[in-house]
Backbone:
């Protein structure tokens, strides 16, 4: 019985360490988080850890409907010219789409 209890305590401690590590990793810049997650076996992380809950908490942000989008710069599709979001302010509407169509 003692061995079972110790094993459960060790597994619980390991789970809490993994959850804390994942929560800290999710608060890093996307490049760092992506590099870290590339080393984690995906199905295991999604099945064992509260991935979605941590993700929603880490990336919630502070914008409210009607707030101005934070300024950022991206290159055009051909990579030749940087375009800044603020350059469109008060000139034309901008639609931001995040995600993938694939």
Residues:
């Amino acid at each position: 019985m003692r061995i079972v209890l110790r094993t459960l305590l060790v597994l619980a401690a390991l789970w809490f360490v993994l959850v804390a590590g994942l929560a800290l990793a999710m608060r890093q810049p996307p490049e760092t988080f992506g590099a870290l997650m590339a080393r984690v076996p995906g199905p295991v992380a999604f099945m064992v850890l509260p991935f979605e809950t941590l993700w929603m908490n880490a990336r919630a942000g502070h914008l409210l409907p009607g707030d101005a989008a934070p300024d950022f710069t991206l290159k055009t599709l051909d990579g030749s010219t940087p375009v800044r979001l603020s350059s469109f302010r008060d000139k034309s509407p901008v639609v931001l789409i995040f995600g993938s169509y694939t």
Observations:
- The chain has one domain: 2-88.
- Strands lie at 73-75, 82-84.
- The longest strand covers residues 73-75.
